[in-house]
């Protein structure tokens, strides 16, 4: 075990987990430790944001509704409620389930062409990842209408989200207007699309992003081929270095990039907007990225466990499923590796991203896909996975992450109006 002090917290497990260095326990009054059934009742009947008038909204999307969430995702959303509802946050899992009180149509006019493309309104989205792209299309409209945070259900929160909000977009004296994770390519000003935060209203960045996204969707029922849309000309394809072989076909680097870019077209849109200079409307994307976007670092921010496991999902699952050494037992090499993951993620990361979707084609099973295939494996008391879960509720890193510093010198991808083809 580590030399860190061992403490006992009230939880669903009596297992005494070690408190890592640079991590502190949260006061009990900042936690909702109600039974899971009580939290389910609150999450399925939250107040409408028009009733609360608060911008402290945490939005999730699950197409078929809250009741169909896989158990590990439900635990994640419970943790958001336990951690942040005492600080005034309301958690909502919106959906497209017929008759659901949390159907997106109860929050936004899905027939409004300024909010959604026709394929969304008609329920006509197709393709292997239609559900993911449905989720993409609700994020910016929700934030621009009501404000708050959008997070993927697979994003386990570790850092103090309330404090980050209060120091950035929630503080009117702060220069920051948008929060997101860096996409891993600082030179191109890329951002990931699994977490956003902003105030409601006409956020100049997300508003432009959504305008461009809607334009790309015109006349489309899927994102296939959007990587080559003229309005994205000049933006490098995603996935540099990825390799793929399926059914005897070896994909070229360009084909891999096209697949990934079509899948995360929302990310490509953000890269274009931050790489655009339009003197006609006074938009300077590189300057906005530098001065107004609080970009959380990609790897340490939410992917740190993948650095420790070389993006090997089976290895991550194996390590996180291990039991901690019992008193008097010697720590094995694998237990040490698992401990280093948990201690570093709880102390240094702001979140813990569980990847699924198209990434499975490139890397095979991920920790997220294996937790889904093995229900309850993330919630076994005495394991490293449960230690991580415990820490994500009861503890917080001592410091907030510093934002990524985008380079001052940058050659824009495009000059001129956003929706005009060059």
From TrEMBL:
Looking at the record's lineage, which domain of life comes first? Eukaryota
Q: Which Gene3D superfamilies match?
A: 3.90.550.20
Q: Which residues form a coiled coil?
A: none
* SUPFAM superfamilies, A to Z: Nucleotide-diphospho-sugar transferases
Instruction: Give any GO molecular function from the UniProt entry.
Output: glycosyltransferase activity
Protein name, UniProt field: Capsule polysaccharide biosynthesis protein
């Amino acid at each position: 075990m580590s030399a860190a002090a061992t403490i006992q917290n009230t939880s669903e497990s009596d297992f005494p987990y070690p408190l890592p260095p640079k991590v502190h326990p949260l006061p009990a009054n900042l936690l909702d430790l109600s039974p899971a059934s009580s939290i389910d009742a609150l999450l399925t009947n939250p107040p409408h944001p028009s009733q609360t008038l608060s911008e402290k909204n945490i939005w999730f999307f699950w197409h078929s509704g809250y009741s169909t969430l896989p158990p590990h995702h439900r635990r994640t959303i419970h943790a958001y409620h336990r951690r942040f509802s005492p600080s005034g946050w309301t958690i909502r899992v919106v959906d497209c389930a017929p008759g659901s009180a949390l159907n997106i149509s109860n929050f936004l006019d899905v027939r409004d062409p300024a909010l959604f493309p026709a394929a969304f309104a008609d329920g006509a989205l197709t393709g292997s990842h239609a559900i993911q792209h449905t989720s993409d299309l609700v994020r910016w409209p929700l934030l621009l209408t009501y404000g708050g945070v959008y997070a993927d259900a697979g994003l386990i929160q570790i850092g103090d989200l309330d404090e980050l909000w209060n120091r950035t977009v929630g503080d009117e004296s702060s220069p920051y207007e948008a929060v997101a994770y860096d996409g891993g390519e600082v030179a191109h000003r890329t951002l990931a699309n699994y977490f956003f935060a902003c105030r409601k209203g006409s956020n100049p960045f997300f508003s432009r992003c959504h305008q461009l996204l809607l334009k790309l969707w015109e006349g489309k029922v899927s994102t296939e081929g959007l990587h080559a849309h003229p309005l994205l000309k000049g933006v490098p394809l995603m996935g540099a270095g990825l390799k793929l072989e399926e059914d005897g076909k070896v994909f070229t680097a360009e084909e891999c990039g096209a697949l990934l870019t079509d899948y995360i077209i929302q990310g490509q849109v953000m890269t274009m907007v931050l790489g655009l200079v339009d003197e006609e409307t006074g938009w300077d994307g590189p300057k906005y990225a530098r001065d107004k976007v609080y970009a959380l670092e990609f790897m340490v921010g939410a992917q740190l466990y993948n650095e420790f496991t070389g993006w090997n999902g089976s290895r991550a699952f194996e390590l996180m499923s291990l039991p901690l050494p019992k008193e008097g037992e010697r720590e094995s090499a694998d237990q040490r590796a698992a401990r280093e993951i948990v201690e570093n993620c709880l102390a240094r990361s702001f979140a813990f991203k569980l990847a699924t979707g198209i990434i499975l084609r490139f890397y095979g099973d991920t920790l997220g896909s294996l937790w889904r295939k093995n229900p309850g494996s993330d919630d076994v008391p005495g394991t490293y996975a449960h230690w991580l879960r415990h820490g994500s509720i009861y503890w917080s890193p001592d410091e907030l992450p510093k934002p990524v510093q985008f380079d001052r010198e940058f050659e824009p991808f495009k000059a001129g109006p956003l929706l005009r083809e060059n």
